[in-house]
């Protein structure tokens, strides 16, 4: 089978290679990949600056959906042909404090599909059956290709940000993660305010189509004044920084209310300069969010199945694996929203 492989550490070192079709081992299933999303971390792997372990040669990719193709020995409750998605934690130790408390996304020994274990930029992938989730009725595998980022967002909004009904939540960065974050905020009964720049106008327009009423182009509008007007001068109850940009982080800390909450979701890729004294002066509760766990996957699937969050409208481009260079170029140029591979 043809697969997109990171064949050595360092910048670049990625190509489409002929790889053997995997066979499911005990407790595993083989999934025929029907759609696979491109994530910012895939670009970090490509450039060689990701902070998680990568062990080439490895098939890249971790966001995907497909149908079960074969069952390994001992698998029960799953059937060939069933549409499914899979969590991305291929290995966790099961012994550390985060693992024992169900927060295995924080396991220091965690190994990830597409980083160490072969991922989904290929026609087939084998995964442990206990990480597999059947899709809700009516959800296509194309829409479900965004389940992994939606699970990350669900973890950030509901489990780390503790968003509550009636709150005003600011989201910086209207990329795929920001658009999903705003939708989950709305599904929780809160009011999302999505902030972007001039280059984000198409994404802000899509946000309005998705029912996000409050969108701000911070290059044309005074975001602080607009948020103050929306909150009676208090400021946002919570801010989710999804852009991974220093300017967005500074904006977030400036518009969050005194005693408010700040959640870092986007990754900067480098150290940034920021005024942390604001945490003290405003008693801001600051935290981060990384990856997901079983609880966030279960919540995410309920949101997706109910229709309260829509993912398919975010898909702007579809590519064959052989078109990976153009797909990566478009991703880095921010010319699309969500890009997916359709492996054959």
Kindly describe this structure.
It contains 11 helices and 18 strands. Helix 4 packs across helix 5 (176-187) and helix 4 (147-160) packs across helix 10 (294-306). With 344 residues, the protein is of the alpha/beta class. The strands form 4 sheets. Strands 3, 5, 6, 9, 10, 17 and 18 form a 7-stranded mixed β-sheet that branches. The chain has helices spanning 40-47, 97-100, 141-144, 147-160, 176-187, 201-209, 223-230, 246-255, 277-281, 294-306, 324-332, and strands at residues 2-6, 14-18, 28-37, 58-59, 63-71, 83-86, 89-91, 111-112, 124-128, 132-134, 168-172, 191-196, 214-217, 236-241, 256-264, 285-288, 315-319, 338-341. Helix content is 28%, strand content 26%. The mean pLDDT is 96. It folds into 2 domains: 2-146 and 311-341, Medium-chain alcohol dehydrogenases, catalytic domain (Quinone Oxidoreductase, Chain A, domain 1); 151-288, 3-Layer(aba) Sandwich (Rossmann fold). The relative contact order is 0.15.
Report the strand count: 18
What is the CATH architecture annotation of the largest domain? Alpha-Beta Complex
Give the C-alpha Rg: 20 Å
Measured distance between first and last alpha carbons? 9 Å
CATH class annotation of the largest domain: Alpha Beta
Overall form: globular
The CATH H-level superfamily of the largest domain is Medium-chain alcohol dehydrogenases, catalytic domain
Residues in helix, %: 25-40%
Number of helices: 11
Main beta-sheet annotation: 7 strands, mixed
- Structural class call reads alpha/beta
Fold-level CATH name of the largest domain:
Quinone Oxidoreductase, Chain A, domain 1
Strand content: 25-35%
The low-pLDDT segments are none
């Amino acid at each position: 089978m043809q697969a997109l492989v990171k064949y050595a550490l360092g910048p670049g070192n990625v190509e489409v290679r002929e790889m053997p079709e995997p066979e499911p081992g005990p407790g595993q299933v083989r999934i025929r990949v029907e759609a696979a999303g491109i994530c910012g971390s895939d670009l970090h792997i490509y450039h060689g600056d990701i902070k998680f372990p990568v062990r080439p040669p490895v098939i890249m990719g971790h966001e995907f959906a497909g149908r079960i193709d074969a069952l390994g020995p001992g698998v029960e409750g799953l059937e060939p042909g069933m549409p499914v998605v899979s969590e991305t934690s291929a290995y966790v130790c099961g012994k550390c404090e985060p693992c024992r408390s169900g927060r295995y996304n924080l396991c220091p020994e965690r190994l990830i599909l597409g980083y160490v274990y072969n991922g989904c930029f290929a026609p087939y992938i084998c995964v442990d059956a206990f990480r597999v989730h059947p899709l809700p009725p009516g959800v296509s595998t194309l829409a479900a290709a965004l389940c992994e980022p939606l699970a990350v967002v669900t973890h950030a909004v509901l489990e780390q940000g503790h968003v509550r009904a009636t709150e005003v939540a600011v989201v910086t960065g209207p990329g795929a993660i920001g658009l999903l974050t705003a939708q989950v905020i709305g599904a929780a009964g809160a009011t999302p305010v999505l902030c972007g720049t001039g280059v984000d106008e198409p994404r802000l327009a899509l946000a309005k189509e998705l029912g996000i009423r409050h969108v701000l182009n911070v290059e044309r509008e005074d975001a602080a004044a607009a948020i103050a007007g929306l909150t009676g001068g208090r400021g946002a109850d919570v801010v989710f920084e999804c852009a991974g940009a220093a300017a967005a982080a500074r904006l977030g800390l400036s518009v969050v209310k005194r005693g408010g909450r700040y959640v870092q979701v986007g990754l900067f890729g480098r150290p940034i300069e920021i005024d942390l004294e604001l945490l003290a002066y405003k008693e801001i509760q600051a935290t981060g969010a990384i990856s997901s766990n079983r609880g966030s996957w279960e919540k995410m699937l309920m949101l997706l199945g109910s229709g309260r969050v829509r993912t398919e409208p975010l898909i702007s481009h579809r590519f064959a694996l052989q078109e990976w260079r153009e797909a990566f170029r478009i991703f880095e140029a921010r010319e699309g929203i969500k890009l997916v591979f359709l492996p054959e």
